Amino acid sequence: MSGNTTFTMIKPDAFADGNSGAIIKIIEERGFRIKALKLTRLSQRKAGQFYAVHKERPFYKDLCDYMSSGPIIAIILEKENAIDDFRKLIGATDPKQAEEGTIRNMFATSIEANAIHGSDSDENAQIEGDFFFSELEKFYLD
Ligand code: CMP
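That is the input. Now the predicted structure with adenosine-3',5'-cyclic-monophosphate docked in place:
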């Protein structure tokens, strides 16, 4: 069982398509509580830092171009077993593989423009939340 915090981003494709509200509604209906939320935009450099773990992958440059192409919404979420439950809710990375009812099945257009991010571990949820939110912005999380 994972911890009670995860981090998500509504990605540029989903934001541009006007799907942010629908996605947040589903997230809340599934029992996740919003602890911090921010509309922002990644620079190419910041996107490169966020996805540094994928630096050697062939899709890295395109991924950074895409993730800096428009606004995103960064959110810290709380729920029991947050990491596992959220990854089930968003579905597989490739929307063609994402099960019916998952957010990527409903809103993603390609493996790259896949609508939403979800942290893959408690440790990464902490790192990714810290990437977007200052201590002041997270002061009420504890
Ligand atoms: P996410 O899992 O949120 O974080 C890594 C991102 O890299 C992933 O979503 C996709 O947006 C992108 N990605 C992963 N695999 C591929 C791939 N094979 N081709 C293009 N983009 C990918």
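The first strand starts at residue 5 and ends at 10.
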